[in-house]
Amino acid sequence: MALPLGIFLGGSVTAIPVVTGVAEGVSHQKKQNEEAANQTRMIKFNMLISCDSDDELADEVDNGILVLRHDKAWIVPRDKTNKPIPPVQNIQPPLHAFAGFYIQYPDDNRNPPERGLVSTISDDPPMLNWIYIDRRTFEAKYGNRTASIEHIVGEWDWTEDESGVILDGWEGFVAVDEGDGEGTAWGAEGLRWALYFDANDDGLKGKRKKGQKMFEVVLERRLQSEEEQLKQMQEAEKKMQVKSAGDLKTQFTAPAAERKRNVWGRKD
Known about the structure:
Region (Disordered): 232-251
Oligomer: single chain
Signal peptide: 1-15
Number of domains: 1
Strand content: 25-35%
Structural class: alpha+beta
Shape: globular
Keywords: Signal
Order of helices and strands: EEHEEEEEEEEHEEEEEEHHH
Number of strands: 16
């Protein structure tokens, strides 16, 4: 079901439709998380990538930006305005850059509760998903609560100076080359560098193929300006107004079970 979630915007809260699990997280946070009053954690940010390696291939990762595609997190180059540069022109829909914030993950079985991380996954409709690490592969992925709950969903945090992103207390992120020399697993889209978390601090032993390139990377928080966030919200509202009939209208008027199917294409 799509419900309104407040995105912190210069001291005010603006509503956008999001999935049930994230909305539940807001309510849970207000009641049980001491950080509920610390709305700076709800300021949206992008993730810029830096890579300190002398390897020539590392240039494809350094000064990049994190994008979300095919249920995974990828690293691609960025332009001077911090917009993703697609590896191949005319990719449709356009690559969507991570744009998210911290919020408590809604799971009563996690004690103590864990701070999660969410991001928009599309602009039309504006929708949020949880960012998580697959327990089997250590890939950085995104999905709804059902997809994420059995995996590593936190504790996400920032570095002491609030400039970087950490998970479980450290910066264990790596970029893994998923190209095959002639293309990638995603064919014509040209995506090559996938984000992983080296959870065991062993160079992803047993998680990557022999000879597969890997670089340590740093995820840098780039806070979105009030103007950027306001523009996004205005564009989202316009799209919702235009779609006065059809799927978006159904999300708000159908019974709960039907609304879930409309958002995800299946019951969650």
